UniProtKB/TrEMBL annotation:
Descriptive protein name: Plasmid partitioning protein
Species lineage: Bacteria, Bacillati, Actinomycetota, Actinomycetes, Frankiales
Organism: Parafrankia soli
Keywords linked to the UniProt accession: Hydrolase, Membrane, Signal, Transmembrane, Transmembrane helix
Pfam families: Esterase_PHB
Cellular compartments per GO CC: extracellular region
Gene3D superfamilies: alpha/beta hydrolase
GO molecular-function terms, A-Z: hydrolase activity
Transmembrane segments: 20-37
Superkingdom to which the source organism belongs: Bacteria
Length: 222
């Protein structure tokens, strides 16, 4: 009785009862439109080539970064294991979605013939990583050079640690190591660069989130 009186005396309640379905449909449509507009404004993953003028000219990598960020962005470099590739790791790690949500630039370097060269700390792959940092900062976006992070899995983890311990720029603020090793995959250089480890055999979005939580507020020590 009281409920019927309230509905009868409240025209809004009666209107809602007649139009609830249409309002819900309109609300869902507005949310979908907002999501599409927001997604269109986010940078997408691209395959690019290091241009002429760099020692590593013509080497490829995947990148994702806004061209004109409001503030300099952290850069995360992610290194795949041997006998795999950048595209597979980009897909499995879901790091590109995380980068869009957390506002950092992203690069997935590509090994030559699927194999990183670790025999020379000043060799071609070390130079390639230096060129990736320079390319991202000079050609693609505005990088915060105090917040460059390098993450890797398997042999990519070994290359990441080797890069962190190599003399000269860039100085990495953090190294993320993914994988299960009987022994540490190389030196750690904790006096220069902090490192974290995730003992997983596969790299998924949870691993990416864990590494970002570890790295995001760290800055280079020297």
């Amino acid at each position: 009785m009281w409920f019927g009186w309230i509905v009868a005396s409240n025209p809004l309640a009666g209107w809602w009862g007649k139009n609830k379905r249409n309002v819900i449909i309109a609300g869902v449509a507005l949310v979908a439109i907002w999501w599409l507009v927001a997604a269109n404004g986010r940078p997408k993953v691209e395959r690019v080539t290091i241009p002429d003028g760099y020692p590593s000219a013509d080497r490829e990598l995947l990148v994702q970064a806004p061209s004109k960020p409001n503030d300099p962005l952290p850069l995360v470099i992610i290194l795949h294991d041997d006998n795999t590739d950048a595209s597979s790791l980009e897909h499995d790690s879901d790091a590109s979605s995380l980068a869009n949500r957390r506002d950092f630039a992203l690069a997935f370097p590509e090994a030559v013939a699927g194999t990183w060269r670790l025999d020379d700390p000043n060799g071609a792959d070390q130079q390639y990583l230096r060129d990736v940092v320079r390319y991202m900062d000079e050609e693609r976006t505005d990088i915060d050079l105090n917040r460059i992070y390098v993450w890797g899995i398997g042999e990519g983890a070994r290359l990441a640690l080797l890069a962190a311990c190599s003399p000269g720029p860039p100085v990495y603020a953090a190294v993320g190591v993914v994988g299960q090793f009987e022994a540490e995959p190389g030196p750690t250089c904790d006096n220069v660069t902090q490192h974290g480890r995730v003992a997983e055999t596969d790299w998924d979005k949870k691993v990416s989130s864990t590494l970002w939580d570890f790295s995001r507020d760290l800055r280079r020590k020297v």
